Structure formats: C-alpha cells, structure tokens
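Title: Comparing notes on inverse folding

I've been comparing how different people in this forum approach sequence design from structure. To keep things fair, I'm posting one structure and asking everyone to reply with a full sequence. Here's the target:
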C-alpha cells in the first residue's frame, strides 16, 4: 500500500463573536474550526501553525496585539471519516495568538505526535479575546491564517 496525497488544512466554519461594551474590560471567546487531513499513511505526525492580524475597525481603531490567546484545542474524527485521533502535546497556559498590523511569524498551536493524527479530523481551538474598556464601538475584524506542516 502506498501513501496518499499531501497534508491539507481547511477552514471548517466562520469564527465570530458579539459583545456589548459596558465600560469594563471584558473577555469574549470564539472557536477557530479547522479540518486537518493526513492521507500520507506514514505516521510521522504534523502540526498546525497560526498567525493573525490585529483586530481593526473601519476607522482604524485596533485592539492590542496581545488581545487574543488560545486557551484549549480538541480534535475528533470528521464526519464520515475513520481516523487515528491526534495526540496533542501543546499546553495552553498563556498561549498568545500572534497578531500585528501585518501578521507576524506563525507559531505551532496544535500537533499530532508520531503515529497519531492519521486520516481526516476536525480541530477546534478556543480563542479568548481581551476587549479593553476603552474600545470604540464598531465592527472589528482580524485575519487568522492556519497552516499545516509535517512533523510533530
């Protein structure tokens, strides 16, 4: 039996959150859903990396570059797929999601140890966003980029 195609990662939804400003510092959360596919059959593992632009509105108001952090991540087999669940070795205490006016270098936020993460799985990271009390009302957006690379 020979291995399949290359590693792949795709968005598995549209992350968002809503928050009503109340004059106090607040924290909102959203789920960053991705689908990771490892059809190679080699068992060498893989990892997901992430970077982002800082939250910004149409008037160029921004959140601090340190506003977002990943607090947890889970993985399950995708619907209709048989997989070997990923054994993730990343801890999420104080795990900052990198952000800048231009997205900075990506960091590893989830990994599949050797002999795990085979097949197609859904990975859901919980992202916490610190919203300062002095935030201007508006609609803010950020571009989050997730990539997959070989090796745990």
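Reply #1:
Here's my take.
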């Amino acid at each position: 039996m020979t291995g399949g195609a290359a590693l792949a990662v795709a968005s598995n939804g549209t992350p968002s959150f809503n928050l009503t400003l109340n004059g106090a510092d607040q924290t909102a959360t959203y789920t960053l859903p991705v689908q990771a596919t490892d059809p190679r059959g080699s068992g060498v593992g893989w990892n997901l990396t992430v970077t982002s632009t800082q939250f910004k509105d149409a008037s160029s108001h921004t959140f601090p570059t340190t506003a977002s952090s990943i607090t947890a991540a889970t993985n399950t087999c995708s619907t209709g797929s048989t997989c070997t669940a990923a054994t993730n070795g990343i801890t999420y205490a104080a795990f900052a999601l990198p952000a800048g006016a231009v997205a900075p270098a990506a960091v590893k936020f989830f990994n599949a140890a050797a002999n795990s993460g085979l097949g197609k799985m859904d990975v859901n990271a919980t992202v916490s966003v610190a919203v300062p009390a002095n935030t201007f009302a508006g609609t803010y957006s950020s571009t989050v980029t997730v990539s997959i690379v070989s090796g745990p």
